[in-house]
Specification:
Residues 333-566 form the ABC transporter domain. The chain is α/β, with parallel strands linked by helices. The protein has 19 helices and twelve strands. The structure holds adenosine-5'-triphosphate. The site of adenosine-5'-triphosphate has 12 residues, from β1 and α11.
Amino acid sequence: MMINKRLIGTVSKSKKYIAGNVTLQWCSLAANIVIMFCITRLLEGLYTGTVDSNSILLSAGVLLAALIVRYLCATGASRMGYLSSKEVKKTLREKIYQKLLRLGASYQEQVKTSEVVQVAVEGVDQLETYFGAYLPQFFYSMLAPITLFAILSFINFPSAIVLLLCVPLIPAAIAAVQTWAKKLLSKYWDQYTALGDSFLENLQGLTTLKIYQADAFKQEEMGKEAENFRKITMKVLTMQLNSITIMDLVAYGGAALGVIMAVTQYSAGHVTLGGCLLIILLSADFFIPMRQLGSFFHIAMNGMASSDKIFRLLDLPEDRPEDAQSVPEKGDIVCTGLRFSYEADREILHGIDLRFPQGSFTALVGESGCGKSTVAAILMGRNRKYTGSVSIGGVELTQLEESSLMRHITYISHNSYLFKGTVADNVRMGKSDASDQQLWEVLTRTKLADFLRSEQGLDTMLQENGSNLSGGQRQRLALARALLHDSPVYIFDEATSNIDVESENDIMDQIQELAKTKTVILISHRLANVVKADQIYVLDSGQVTEHGTHAELVEKKGVYESLWTAQQNLENYRKDGEPA
Ligand SMILES: Nc1ncnc2c1ncn2[C@@H]1O[C@H](COP(=O)(O)OP(=O)(O)OP(=O)(O)O)[C@@H](O)[C@H]1O
């Protein structure tokens, strides 16, 4: 019942802590039996008048020792619980982390980031209690009634057997509510995550909601969701309270039955007064562990749900080749008959041929949504489920080691991520052993050096995603980091969109400088930026429609030429205030 062998096997180190926890709880029970035994002996002695000061002193000594043992066992058991929880957290988070590393840059093809975060944080936390509390209780709740039965059967067998037979009624009651509870809990979790999603989305988009005065409508929508969640929470609580009531009825009913049996046996003369008292005092202990297990029932159910999610993540297929190779130092990047779909029935790239010769400057242009970024993501190994062929230096992309690919190609998008920390920390990601002088060199190339000197130099602090910098400064810093990475291939994906003209020009100057020594692939919607490219591919709805240099394409008077003319007119209009 709620025991997942695979899960326990995965965190096998925690077995010894669970065993320790059960043993200590069992020792505590033994001490409790000794305490009850002393008390009943003493009471019987007082009743029959056979007690003397020596036996009182002896009983007091044994009582004190048993109390100390009980205290030590309780402390030890909770320490064991803590150690096994710690082990579970460490092992499972490590496994999830390693799995993500093995899935690599393409992990999003198989699992959503939010799901990974939920599983690694909340999912693992739920298993912490499963291992720390539920599992030890599961074993102890079986051991305790058997131990008590073994002892009490010597005192009065009929009472002991009645008590023992009543114990399984508790798990039977739990099993009865389990099927219903499972459905209810899964509904509860669905509504909980749905409400969490809406809350996060509305919070992130609050400014937009305010601008369009749509906040009242969203509030109403969320109010309805919250009301549904309240209702289902109340249902879950009612279910839990009801099941606790049922368990209490069984537990105390069973104990009462045991007491009645003991008293009847005493009046029939089958058991001594002390024996009868001992049965009465210990009868509740038959049921308390199982009753406690029942109250951990929802922990176990959540634990099972989390472990399913964790194993689903850990079982995701990893199509990494056994004999992965490093990227050849030299060679062109060639795509032949490249097809790709994000969703089964919607192909984005329809069998395109592209060649990026080593050391050349290639531009990819085309209308929004034509598939430019998809090509870049395929080259970076993020979209692995393509068909056709993509090779670097003659080796198929899927046969390449991911780390080698990351050293070979640097990708700079329009929103490259900057981390909270110093400028030096962020730029050094490009090359961990770079000297301060090398950092200043790239920062000078991207024209950030003067600004940083007026701040705290390389120690200037950045907030999350560089939110204390301007858009242009952020892109300059991302470029500095990329330059330091010094890879043979660079892909710029709209790296200059949404920034000021001065920053755009500075960054374009650096890209053109870089193109003299490296393979550069530039994705840009602004055609003025691609004029100097060695070759331009024009993409339309996932197909290459034109290919050539800027001059050739203008000459051709096709799609490129009409886009170019339209953009030129617009730019001249901006400069002169009237159409060219
Ligand atoms: N993760 C995704 N899941 C499903 N469809 C996607 C995903 N990413 C992109 N697409 C779809 O693929 C098509 C091509 O997108 P892509 O981002 O490659 O275009 P793009 O040419 O780079 O556009 P833009 O210039 O606007 O960035 C689009 O129709 C888009 O809807």
